[in-house]
Every structure is written in C-alpha cells, then in structure tokens.
# Entry
Amino acid sequence: MEKLVKRLSDKAQEIVVGGPNPSVDQLENQIKEIGYVFIKFIETNGGTDIGVRIDNEGTDLSKADFINKNGLVNIVGYLVLNFVPVKCIAEINLSTLKGSGKLIISESKY
# Structure
C-alpha cells in the first residue's frame, strides 16, 4: 500500500482547514455552494493538502453555527490520493478551523 495513504488511514490525524485563505466563510461556501473542501493534514512532513468532494448525505452540519463561527462540522467526502481511492472523514471546530481527520481506503474509484 502507498506509504502516505497508509499513514493517514492508520489513525485520526490533526488537520486544519486548507486552501489559500482559510476562513469560516470560505469553508461554508466550499461545503454548501462548491461541494468541495480543502483539508490539510499537518502531521506529515511539510503537511499534506487534499481536496475532498463532499458527500452531502454523510456530512453533518447540524452542530455548526456559521454565523457566530463556532460549533463542529463533520465532513465526509471522497478523493483519490496517490492513485488510491479513499474516503475522508473529518471533524472541524469552526472557532479554530482545526480538528481531526482520517482516510479510509476504498475498493472503488470515486
């Protein structure tokens, strides 16, 4: 198995909201309008930025307060990392734009 994918799928890792100008407003727009978010796994050498296609049915925004910029967002989405199809599960605290995330290796491509 590819080394980076294995590392990110072994256990939950610390993450931050990725992209050039991370903010709560940008994250909300990515989730609700674009359907694609950027997440950075910071425990790898130099960090690993990934783009995740949102699974609307798996993603939970019920604990998020985007107006007051607090609460939790639970993101579920899909991507192919280093030729390996994976599912990403991430929980992000809106007040810090930090959280934890993990990849789950999948048998099919998304």
